[in-house]
Amino acid sequence: MAPDIPKEQKAQVITADGVMTLKTIPVPTPGPQEILIHILYSGVCHTDLHALNNDWPLPRKTPLVGGHEGAGVVVAKGSLVASGQGVDVGDYVGIPWLNSTCHHCTFCMQAQEMLCSEAQLSGYTVDGSFQQYAVANASHVAKLPKDKGVELDAAAPILCAGLTVYTGLKQSEARPGQYVAIVGAGGGLGSLATQYAKAMGLHVIAIDGGPEKGESCKKLGAEVYVDYLKSKDLVADVKAATADGLGPHGVLLLAPMEKPFQQATGYVRSHGTVVCIGMPAGAKVSMPVFDTVVRMVQVKGSYVGNRQDMVEAIDFFLRGLVRAPVKVVGMSELGGVFDAMRENKVVGRYVLDTSR
């Protein structure tokens, strides 16, 4: 029996830079290669705040429904979506940042689809998951096994935050028994990065500000917490957190501010890797060239992940190895979530319940 699909729905709509309104809009119709998803929960990412402010050098759709961590149930599919694609009506799926790609460019052919020049981005270049019903490309949605009793509110943050930090840890090339510093460890990405790192056998040095975030980081598996608000010498404190005092083998930069991007090469271990993931508006990365060369330090960017990375990131979640500390609020409260982000007061991840 086909699900009953309404003609109208509630959505948070960006109508101009910095202006967002809860509105009633039509329920979209899926194209030939798309599916229609009844969004039950959607995580809120710092990227969504950048989309609202339109402060990235990337053209944004206007008007726009933001959001790219939407978890829900397939209620309809386009004419070209075959059952053999592994997506059918009634399935649990997630809408990730990468809504669609071309599938035929050199990057797509090498499983680097996040670099596709024709990529469409959920909640940025196409409407995303801050609505009750959303369309997505069938080949890019994340599969969430219904038979394993997946809690969709808990799964939502894995679709971007989990995928992003899991891929970043792989990019750091840190091996079990080695050290990784996670900058911005108390936030949504950081809370998951700490758990993935611990599950991968790494020693975690958490860096963030304030005692509440420190307590959260320790509960999630960080061995050491460095409070940048109290530290008089951050570089020395991070190095001292490793057994031999040489610094962490990898650094994940998740913070939404520029200063950590200037500090990381000072405390990363020689022959270590600094991975840039957070994207503060207008920020730049700088490093001393001589020191970077003679210490053989690598600095690289890591951008979400490919579809296989998504499968792996979800597998950690399904096995109970990672779980974001989520706070579920109504979709009508999204403005307040953004206020908390601006004030750097978010501990863990906010998830929107689209029914309220």
Keywords:
26% helix; 18 strands; seven-stranded mixed β-sheet; 11 helices; alpha/beta; 356 residues; six-stranded parallel β-sheet
Overview of this structure, please?
This protein is of the alpha/beta class and 356 residues long. The chain has eleven helices and 18 strands. The strands form four sheets. Strands 3, 5, 6, 9, 10, 17 and 18 form a seven-stranded mixed β-sheet that branches. It has a six-stranded parallel β-sheet with strand order 13-12-11-14-15-16, sandwiched between helices. Strands 2-1-4 form a three-stranded antiparallel β-sheet, with no helix packed on it. The two termini are 26 Å apart. The mean pLDDT is 91. Residues 18-352 form the Enoyl reductase (ER) domain. It is an enzyme of class 1 (oxidoreductase).
Q: Compute the number of helices.
A: 11
Structural class: alpha/beta
The largest β sheet comes out as: 7 strands, mixed
Q: What string gives the helices and strands in order?
A: EEEHEEEEHEEEHHEHEHEHEHEHEHEHE
Count all strands and give the number: 18
Topology, element by element:
Elements: E1 8-16, E2 19-26, E3 34-43, H1 46-53, E4 64-65, E5 70-77, E6 92-95, E7 98-100, H2 106-109, E8 120-121, E9 133-137, E10 142-143, H3 152-155, H4 161-172, E11 179-183, H5 188-199, E12 203-208, H6 211-220, E13 224-227, H7 234-240, E14 250-253, H8 259-267, E15 273-276, H9 289-294, E16 298-301, H10 307-318, E17 326-330, H11 334-342, E18 349-353
Parallel strand pairs: 11-12, 11-14, 12-13, 14-15, 15-16, 17-18
Antiparallel strand pairs: 1-2, 1-4, 3-5, 3-9, 3-18, 5-6, 6-10, 7-8
Helix pairs in contact: 4-5, 4-10, 7-8
